[in-house]
Amino acid sequence: MNLSDYNTLAGSFNPIGYGGATAVPEPASLVLFVLGLILHAAGTGYRRN
């Protein structure tokens, strides 16, 4: 890596972020949410009648 590479990278740096990047939740958060729902339903004694 030489100085021209550094200048190219530093010139295109955007501290706010890039337009195409969107926040995507990681899969573990969905698994924890579903597990929480199951445990909550089990704790409240949910039964289908």
Task: Give the key terms.
49 residues; mainly alpha; 2 helices; 53% helix
Structure, briefly:
The protein is mostly helical.
What's the end-to-end separation, in Å? 69 Å
Structural class: mainly alpha
Number of domains: 1
Radius of gyration: 23 Å
Shape: rod-shaped
How many extended strands?
Answer: 0
Unreliable residue stretches: none
- Mean pLDDT across every amino acid position: 79
Helix content: 40-55%
Secondary-structure element sequence? HH
The proportion of residues in beta strands is under 5%
Number of helices: 2
**Main pleated sheet:** none
Structural overview:
The protein has helices at 3-11, 27-43. The chain has 49 residues and is mostly helical. It has one domain (3-46).
Write the layout of secondary structure elements.
Layout: H1 3-11, H2 27-43
